């Protein structure tokens, strides 16, 4: 797997329903991220939603990655707040518990079953 390239979903051969679901999710994720980076205390909930492995936005992103993988190998890169040197990568997948594997030119730890990934560096 080679990681690090941004690929537009519309270049995939995915059903329109999956593409629309992805676009809707992407808008919600971007809104949360923009809210979080605004760095105002009232936006703490947005940061929590991004950081929580079990938040609705992350679980929806994982499901979409699993759907997209049917057409093209896709991983969901879990949010990792590295602005304060808080990059933490677990040894085990937080969803299924198997050992994460190194991939993507040794920059990403991933779970091939759940389709999630952690970036090792910023
Ligand atoms: Zn897993």
Structure description:
α1 (16-37) crosses α2 and α1 runs antiparallel to α3. The protein has one domain (16-119). The chain contains three helices and four strands. The chain starts with 15 loop residues before the first helix and ends with a strand. 36% of the residues lie in helices and 11% in strands. β3 (108-111) and β4 form a beta hairpin. Strands 1-4-3-2 form a four-stranded mixed β-sheet. It has 122 residues and is of the alpha+beta class. The site of zinc ion has 7 residues, from loops.
Give a quick rundown of the structure:
With 122 residues, the protein is α+β, with helices and mostly antiparallel strands.
What would the keywords be for this entry?
122 residues, alpha+beta, 4-stranded mixed beta sheet, 3 helices
List segments where confidence is low: pLDDT < 50 over at least 5 consecutive residues.
none
Average pLDDT, all residues = 83
Small molecules held by this entry:
zinc ion
- SS content category: alpha+beta
Oligomer: single chain
Rg of Cα set? 15 Å
**What's the arrangement of strands in the largest beta sheet?**
1-4-3-2
Q: Give the overall shape, derived from the CA principal axes.
A: globular
**Residue fraction in strands:** 5-15%
């Amino acid at each position: 797997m080679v990681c690090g390239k941004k690929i537009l979903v519309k270049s995939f051969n995915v059903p329109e329903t999956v593409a629309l679901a992805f676009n809707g999710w992407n808008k919600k994720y971007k809104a949360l991220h923009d809210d979080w980076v605004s760095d105002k205390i009232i936006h703490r909930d947005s940061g929590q939603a991004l950081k929580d492995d079990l938040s609705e936005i992350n679980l929806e992103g994982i499901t979409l990655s699993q759907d997209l993988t049917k057409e093209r190998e896709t991983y969901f890169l879990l949010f990792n707040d590295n602005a304060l040197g808080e990059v933490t990568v677990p040894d085990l997948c937080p969803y299924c518990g198997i050992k994460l594997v190194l991939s993507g030119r040794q920059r990403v730890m991933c779970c091939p079953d759940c389709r999630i990934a952690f970036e090792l560096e910023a």
